[in-house]
Amino acid sequence: MLSGSAQALSHLITLVEKDGPEVPQIMREIYPHLGKAYSIGITGPPGGGKSTLIDKLTKVARGRGLSAAIIAVDPTSPFSGGATLGDRLRMQQHFLDSGVFIRSMATRGSYGGLPWAAHGVMKLLDASGKDIIFVETVGVGQTELDIMEAVDTIVVVLYPEAGNAIQTMKAGLMEIADILVVNKADREGANRLLAALRARPHLSSEGRGWQVPILATQTINDVGIEELYQEIERHRGYLESSGCLLQRRREQTRAEFLKIIKQRLSRQLLQSLKEDKTLAASLGKVESGEIDAYSAAMEILSNKAHIVAWFQS
């Protein structure tokens, strides 16, 4: 992969998605090669044209001589467990471009719009030498906040028909935006939506240092795409010059570290329920109603000797 093999990259991504025993070693091997790529998250309600927008932005990036990668997150199929929409169908112009790598991923039970494996996949794409990484989330609305812990610049995409939903977005999705985009701006209601967004106070990120721009695009007509890309570059320049990029990445690394510990401990706990007699006995008491769940948990956690033995096992 480090030598440029797309096939090797695809194979490693599959291993990371499966979260097999090889993942820690893979992460150790690629660690010295990280930190060069710039990541851009494209999020927002379904139907906003996020996939087509990424397609157009990728074209601009390629025109600047940059290599690009696209992670398109789709809803999980209830039958196969895989991605259902296949956003790659909307990015056909890049299929034969060796400078663009496209990967669809399923949410796999994530409620924050981004599967946990996407973090590892982004690291692989970074180590493989990609300059720009676009991440499209599944579009679940206000709860789609996982993207904050994954990318450098967040673009929130709305569209005229979503105008009524703005009133329900008092917090969450609207507040994570570094750039706001009203796509399909040729449709009726676009001007009203733009006016409503521009009337909202406190649309700023990183404190008061960055005023969130509000742009209108028409992806089908190639309108506003270049301007959007320029705003992304401007935001990157602001983050780098202010030191916010380093701070943002440090916070993301901290969150990732804690999530890995939580994930591994949860997995170990579930395994221990099958093997550890003390845990199994406590669970049995809870299930039978002999003791409440909170008290049982505190009893287990207060037994430091048992916790140490559990970790050592």
Descriptive overview:
The protein has two domains: 6-255, P-loop containing nucleotide triphosphate hydrolases (Rossmann fold); 256-312, no CATH class. With 313 residues, the chain is an alpha/beta fold. It has helices at residues 6-18, 23-30, 50-63, 117-127, 190-198, 225-242, 244-275, 277-288, 293-302, 304-312; strands at residues 38-43, 68-74, 100-106, 132-136, 153-158, 179-182, 204-205, 210-211, 214-216. β7 and β8 (210-211) form a beta hairpin. α1 (6-18) packs antiparallel against α4 (117-127), α3 (50-63) packs across α6 (225-242) and α8 (277-288) packs antiparallel against α9 (293-302). The longest helix is centred in the C-terminal third of the chain and has 32 residues, at 244-275. The relative contact order is 0.11. Residues 77-87 have low confidence and may be disordered. 43% of the residues lie in helices and 13% in strands. It has a seven-stranded parallel sheet with strand order 3-2-4-1-5-6-9, with helices on both faces. It is built from ten helices and nine strands. The protein is globular and about 65 Å long.
